[in-house]
Amino acid sequence: MALKFLSLGSGSSGNSYFLGTESYGVLFDAGLPCSQIKDGLNSHHIGLEQIMGLFVTHDHADHIKAVGALSSKYNIPVYATQPVLDGINSSFFVREKLDATSRRPIEKNTPIQIKDFSITAFNVPHDASDCVGYLVEYEQQKWVLATDVGLIDDEVGKHLKMANHLVIEANYDAEMLFSGNYPDVLKERITNGKGHLCNSDTANFLAANFSSHLRNIWLCHLSGENNRAELAYCTVREALDFRSINIENVNLVTLERAAPSKMYVLE
Ligand SMILES: [Zn+2]
Ligand SMILES: [Zn+2]
User: Fold this and answer.
1) How far away, in angstroms, is 171 Cα from ligand 1 center?
2) What ligand is nearest to the CA atom of residue 131?
3) Which ligand is nearest to the CA of 12?
4) Are 20 and 42 in contact (CB under 8 A)?
5) Model pTM greater than 0.90?
6) Least enclosed by CB within 10 Å: which of 82, 152, 182, 185?
7) Do residues 36 and 87 make contact, with C-beta atoms less than 8 angstroms apart?
């Protein structure tokens, strides 16, 4: 069965991603209203009863707002590290809390088997209670999610390099951020290595570590204030072109902040 990927929303107003096959799937983060997640899936004839688990990257509101509601309403187990599970239940933004039966604490670097998916969390530097990226292995394919990445350290880099299909943050353009209206304290928080990735860091990493096994690159979590889709796209494209990397066989896309993507069939 083919692997399929859908972004339901990407950015500070709410993140949620679906990865699945014809018959089942998992969600990563639920920072959008429940109804939006449900409708986004339904428009591709996917019901919430097909969702085998909800994996959470970290406990910032834009990733967790609907976690409790989705889990309790549709009986979906929630997988996250213990500090993130605790953070969800103490978050002001999560009205419905997770009960003991829905919480599935995970350890980093320890694969979880969900049907034919092997899902492994890896550490990501970010200013939350804890933060992880995810590697999903399915048949011969490796899908990797790295959002809200303060810094591409060795651990993150190792996982990015494994990907055939990569969802990676391109949060801000440095020039737009520094010349923009954000207060200095916020600019510092975004750029201090525990905040977010800028377009050029993502671009330079991809260009320096490009491998022909990479088939899809989705740039995610673009800032509404400090980035533009074409700027993120061009920054990455130019870095790849500069190294004469042939991306004829690579699908490079910026994910929209407020609208679902199309359904991508991965091969
Ligand atoms: Zn975020
Ligand atoms: Zn965050």
Assistant:
1) 9
2) 2
3) 1
4) no
5) yes
6) 185
7) no
The mean pLDDT value of the chain amounts to 97
For residue 148, the number of C-alpha atoms closer than 13 Å in the C-beta half-sphere is 27
Contact 35, 17 (CB under 8 A): no
Query: Which residues are within 8 A (CB) of 54 and not within 5 positions of it... i.e. 6 or more apart?
Result: 26, 27, 28, 29, 30, 67, 70, 71, 76, 77, 78, 79
CA of 57 to the centre of ligand 2 (A): 9
Of 53-62, 75-84, 245-254, minimum mean pLDDT range? 245-254
pLDDT for 267 equals 84
Contacts of 187-191 with CB under 8 Å at 24 or more apart are: 189/127, 190/226
Q: How many whole angstroms separate alpha carbon 104 and alpha carbon 82?
A: 9
Among all ligands shown, which has an atom nearest to the Cα of 63?
A: 1
Output the CA 198–ligand 2 centroid distance in Å: 14
The rounded Å distance from CA 12 to ligand 1 centre is 5
CA of 148 from ligand 2 middle (Å) equals 5
Mean pLDDT confidence for 29-53: 97
**Residue 242 pLDDT more than 90?**
yes
- The H or E element containing residue 139 is none
Q: Indicate the pairing of strand 117-123 with strand 132-138.
A: antiparallel
- What sign does the dihedral 36-37-42-44 (CA atoms) show? positive
- Phi, psi (5° rounding) for residue 35? -65, -35
